[in-house]
Amino acid sequence: MALTATQRSKPQPKAPLKADKAYVFTWEGTDRRGAKVKGETRASSITTVRADLRRQGVNATKVKKKATSIFGGGKKITASDIAIFSRQLSTMMAAGVPLVQSFDIVGRGHENPSMQDLILAIKQDIESGTAMAEALAKHPLYFDDLFCNLVAAGEQAGVLDILLDKIANYKEKTESIKGKIKKALFYPAAVIVVAIIVTVVILLFVIPQFKTLFSSFGADLPAFTLMVIGLSELLQAWWWALFIGIGAGVWGIGYVFKRSAKFRAILDRTMLKFPIIGNILNKAALARFARTLSTMFAAGVPLVEALESVSGATGNIVYQEAVIKMREEVATGQSLQLAMRQRNLFPHIVIQMTAIGEESGALDDMLAKVADFYEEQVDNAVDSLSSLMEPLIMVVIGGLIGGLVVAMYLPIFKLAAVV
What is the Cα gyration radius of the chain? Predict the structure, then answer.
């Protein structure tokens, strides 16, 4: 059974509440045979480095802190880093390596310095007597309630390696889905940006050359050509305002998105109604819902508590609100499949599989099959979108560039007809 929020917030041991920051040290010395050795290690102080080296049979003759770049040596910790950490820790523990030693090996071997600092800080908390779930909960930016609940369940049941393996599988599949969604959204956005850049370049540098040529004709220009020339002149005069406006717009949307839950809710609801893209987002949300609930239920987390964590893992405010209402109804004794049916959001196949799982006592297996099905559906939908976008790209770019070319050559055709 997972630890509750109240249990995780109980007073911590006095020593030490906060892990010391780890630094990179370079060292030189001699081993037991007298051979010269050197290397790098991460620790909180030179004293710690010398003590670690002595335990390894190395007599350190020189230890100094490694200089860091003025731009900072740490990289951002990503969800992929957390997934890899979970997989490595699970493998180490399954092989019989003690927990603290597993943290030490995984932490010191990680390529990302920021991730090394995080892992070694958690290791120091565990060494001081803190439970692993409580140590992870001190870093909510990287380890959410779902992660901590599963680890707590594993610690209490004595199957931490198995639970870490489930977490690793869950994280890997979730990141795979997120990657496919980003691919589906990035492709059309990239096409639009490229088309706009090419159009702006033509309006700023190519159209003015044609304007100079047309001024020598001494004849009226077609309306379409005049419109394009006017757009070019406007862009030349106010290009700086355009770029400032675009930059301010992007920054403003990002600012509001981070700080306004109402704006995010409107955006999530709107995205679900988009043609093609909305279908992919719906299937991805269903896959995350089923995968998360299956993972937590299989770990022995009570259904009501599991639904609380699942609500935040769906990735969309519409599904999040639906799961929160389902949790309230399940807490009063209602079956999960009935609560899902009343939302008018879940497809019949998901409700049916859930009902079978509840009746047979294999809810985690049924939900895992649902997750597999919708993850495959997302794969197919993204591939179909990519195939559909290729001709659409040709139409969009061809329409923009072709329109500008026609506008510039219309006066030449008109002059040729007069001659």
Answer: 30
